[in-house]
Write a structure and sequence with these properties.
CATH architecture of the largest domain: 3-Layer(aba) Sandwich
CATH superfamily of the largest domain: Periplasmic binding protein-like II
Strand order of the largest sheet: 2-1-3-13-6
Number of strands: 13
Largest sheet: 5 strands, mixed
Radius of gyration: 29 Å
Shape: globular
CATH class of the largest domain: Alpha Beta
Length: 481
């Protein structure tokens, strides 16, 4: 044999090779058209929060425009938010991709979150359209080198603390209006009150005329005064207009009321701001305005009471977080058709927003940033304000929401918000003084509570004692402000 193969055998071999090539090609085509595996975008949120409801709706909408993405909401309890986030971030896990956090939690998370001011971050997000008061509350942190500031989180929900809520039936009563004007010579419209002295005079007049509206309001004014936490929040809102722009306090003009109100900068030195004449004025006013509600020792007013009590109709007006508005407007509320909203006397407020921070270990940072851009877009904020009474965190969002019937008061908020100037020095103080949330609050609240409940302690003694305890705590923990 000469080693050659029959012609038929060669043809069969060639045909077999062709078949194999066709099969391989076909398989390649099949593989090419196989649907891409869905990407999971996991967002950790505070269970039961309004932000959780909003993000679920945003996630559903985002999935429709991104069919290969699955948005998953991972709910955890408030007390577990920091420990869950820090253990995940320190461990280098890629999931969750996004973490919800509050202003008080920013000191713990700041060193671990992705810097949105990076080159890629700036392609999708810019701080310029977000409300400055929100940003200052927890969006910024010093970078590791100490030579700049990182943008660590997007404010996703503007929560205001405090605002003034009032029963319009009470304040639109012509008899009461005329009687008040003839006595005090200014109008009692909550939106026009210039200071806390005028507010106190309005409350005093209402308390002396409880039956004028036929509803027999029991109390003129609901003021938060619970020592468990509310005192610290109430005092900075009350102290701010007395101390802002004063050299004795070091509180800069256009800074807005917040925890940084408790610290001032004079000649490049940081000091506690409230143990002075302006703090005393604010504390005395605090005691005055608590007389128009149940006594502090009998029924302290905390967050739960603020959210529930005003809806009973027992109060002519009160101080509230903006997140309580949906509760006041629900079907069981007795003020749902009479609810008025205004900023605090002098037209200002404090900011306590909700934030979303990014996991730097996330598998697809581009997708994460796209979602944050989408979640803070005007279209989604429109949905949020309509469906959830969800106050936006951007100037454009506030402007659009202010045209809705129940949210015209947001126009004054937007105007005020544009006057606030960011001072990163105060943001850094706020972060450095993180013990404020565990040790400094009880120190302050106990002194103020004793004063409010009628002890022999004077206002200046209460504030001096609190300031001394704060200084000692910061020194013991080696915190240099």
């Amino acid at each position: 044999m000469d080693g050659t193969q029959p012609k038929n055998h060669k043809k069969a071999l060639i045909a077999g090779i062709i078949v194999i090539i066709v099969i391989v090609a076909a398989l390649g085509v099949i593989e090419f058209h196989r649907p891409a595996q869905k990407q999971n975008l996991v967002i950790m949120v505070d269970s039961g929060s309004m932000t959780s409801s909003y993000l679920k709706a945003v996630g559903t909408s985002f999935e429709k425009s991104h069919p290969n993405v699955n948005v998953e909401i991972d709910s955890v309890g408030y007390s577990d938010m920091v420990t869950t986030a820090t253990s995940t971030l320190k461990g280098g896990s890629s999931t969750p991709s996004i973490f919800m956090y509050y202003a008080s939690q920013s000191p713990d998370l700041a060193p671990l979150l992705y810097n949105l001011n990076s080159t890629m971050g700036r392609q999708y997000l810019s701080a310029s359209n977000f409300v400055a008061g929100d940003l200052a509350s927890g969006s910024f942190a010093p970078n590791g080198t100490g030579s700049g500031t990182n943008f660590i989180g997007v404010p996703i929900h503007t929560v205001l603390g405090y605002i003034l809520v009032y029963n319009k039936t009470v304040f639109e009563n012509t008899t009461l209006q005329n009687g008040f004007y003839s006595t005090y010579h200014f109008h009692m419209n909550p939106k026009d009150l210039k200071n806390w002295t005028q507010m106190n005079e309005v409350a005093k007049y209402i308390s002396e005329n409880t039956n004028f509206n036929g509803k027999n309001n029991k109390y003129a004014f609901m003021v938060p005064d619970s020592s468990s936490h509310s005192i610290i929040d109430m005092f900075y809102n009350l102290f701010y207009p007395y101390g802002v722009g004063k050299s004795a306090t070091g509180i800069p003009a256009n800074s807005s009321a917040n925890y940084w109100t408790y610290f001032g900068i004079n000649n490049s030195k940081v000091s506690i701001s409230y143990n002075n004449t302006y703090g005393v004025q604010a504390l005395k006013m605090y005691k005055n305005i608590t007389q128009y509600e149940p006594s502090v020792s009998t029924q302290p007013i905390g967050y739960d009471q603020q959210e529930l009590y005003f809806g009973t109709g027992d109060y002519a007006m009160g101080l509230a977080w903006s997140s309580f508005i949906p509760t006041y407007e629900n079907s069981s509320s007795k003020v749902k058709n009479d609810l008025g909203v205004a900023l605090l006397p002098g037209n200002y407020t404090g900011y306590s927003p909700t934030f979303l921070g990014v996991n730097p270990h996330a598998q697809n940072l581009t997708l994460v940033l796209q979602f944050l851009k989408y979640a803070t877009s005007s279209s989604e904020f429109d949905m949020g304000i309509n469906d959830y009474a969800y106050v936006p965190s951007t100037y454009t969002g506030l402007n659009e929401a202010s045209h809705l019937a129940n949210f015209t008061w947001l126009s004054s908020l937007n105007n005020y918000s544009k006057t606030i100037k960011l001072d990163t020095n105060y943001t850094e103080i706020f972060l450095k003084a993180s013990p404020l949330f565990s040790t400094l609050i009880p120190d302050f609240n106990s002194q103020v509570y004793d004063y409010l409940t009628g002890s022999q302690t004077s206002a200046i003694t209460a504030l001096n004692t609190a300031a001394k305890e704060w200084a000692s705590e910061l020194k013991d923990q080696n915190i240099q402000l």
